[in-house]
Amino acid sequence: MGLLDNSLKIHREEDYLYLPLIRKPQETDLYELTKNVRHFEILQHGFVRNVKKPIKLVNLLSDKLPSTVLSSLPHALDYVGDIAIIEIPAELESYKTIIGQTIMASNKRVNTVLAKTSPVTGEYRIRKFETISGVNKTETVHKEYGCIFHVDLTKAYFSPRLSYEHNRVASLVKERETVFDMFAGVGPFSILIAKKQKKVHVYATEMNPEAFKLLRKNILANKVNATVKPFLGDARHIAPARLKDSIDRVIMNLPEKAIQFVDVACQVIASYGGIIHYYEFNNTSKPLETAKIKLSEAVEQNNRKVEKILHSKIVRGVSPFTWQVAVDAKIK
To answer: If phi over 0 gives left and psi between -120 and 50 gives alpha, with beta otherwise, what is residue 8?
Structure first.
């Protein structure tokens, strides 16, 4: 439900658990709690801060690998459900089994360790993996901000590094808005929006048939089928006919090609205006400024105008000197 405050420790006292909350529960929260927990109270309690220092992979492997290759170890892992994902450089190829075993041994929640064996490629933005430890699988269930997502990493793109961005955008959506998730994938934006704000309409298009199957499954799993309407196909072919002049907010999370779909966004945004959440990969010396200019020019080419840039940020680095950039723009 997204209520638990993970920065504080859960406190046990005899037969009771005290769970720290991030906010006062609303009536809808209490209703959901009552369905699952018979006896509980909402009260004030003192908690201890939960301070955990992450153990670095290089420290865990310092006595298992030659010192000459330790510096080549990746600084970060991705965790999707019970799967850990790592990129193994060529110089560490012969040590991949011990690396995988060490990752599993250090994290009890991990049942599979996958090594990336290809970049993200193709129309559906997917990559190949090799199992280097644990159960040989690419399917899992990932939890994020109170939502659950069925994922198959070889069939549909999914990045846990965008978790904050999913929540940031979902938190901006207002009651009774109509939202168009142009490149929905397995549904992290659409479903989180629907869970956070029930009085909205969300339209989600996805052209990858395998990702679309997972999107529909996740909509049902999160009980948002009354709010999120999925469509299989290219947003360019679906949106203008079905959604023209009806959308308050468009999410354009396809960084490789989003600029090519600005015309579609301009067609579906309501005549009184709306908001675009635009993403792109940028390798210029001023990525934020460049992205703002590109978006503004593309909007003007489609008989609209950027009234105001509401927000811009570098979301993450994707390769040396290349960043994923987010721009929120208010459109006239």
So the answer is: beta
**Is the same domain home to 257 and 244?**
yes
Q: How many domains does the chain have?
A: 3
Nearest to 230 by CA among 222, 241, 219: 219
3-state secondary structure of 213: helix
Q: Are strands 83-86 and 112-116 parallel, antiparallel or unpaired?
A: parallel
Instruction: Give yes or no for a contact between 57 and 77, defined as CB atoms under 8 angstroms apart.
Output: yes
Q: How far is the C-alpha of 174 from the C-alpha of 120, rounded, in Å?
A: 34
Shared domain for 186 and 302, answered yes or no, is yes
Residue pair 167/190 in contact by the 8 Å Cβ criterion: no
On whether the CB atoms of residues 325 and 291 are closer than 8 A, the answer is yes
pLDDT band of residue 53 (cuts 50, 70, 90) is low
In a domain, 261, yes or no: yes
Pair (317, 198) in one structural domain: yes
Looking at the domain assignment, is residue 151 inside a domain? no
- Cα separation of 47 and 43, whole Å? 12
Give the separation between CA 142 and CA 160, rounded to whole angstroms: 9
Q: Which residues contact 74 (CB under 8 A, 6 or more apart)?
A: 57, 86, 87, 89
Interatomic CA distance for residues 5 and 129, integer angstroms: 34
Token reading at 20: 């720290």
Confidence of residue 31 (pLDDT cuts 50, 70, 90): confident
148 occurs within a structural domain: no
The overall average pLDDT reported for the chain is 93
Give the domain range for residue 23.
Answer: 1-52
Task: Burial-class residue 230 by CB neighbours within 10 Å (0-12, 13-18, 19+).
Answer: buried
Q: Which CATH number characterizes residue 264's domain?
A: 3.40.50.150
Cα 96 off chain centre by: 27
What pLDDT, on a 0 to 100 scale, did the predictor assign at position 67? 86
**Residue owning tokens 């899992």:** 140
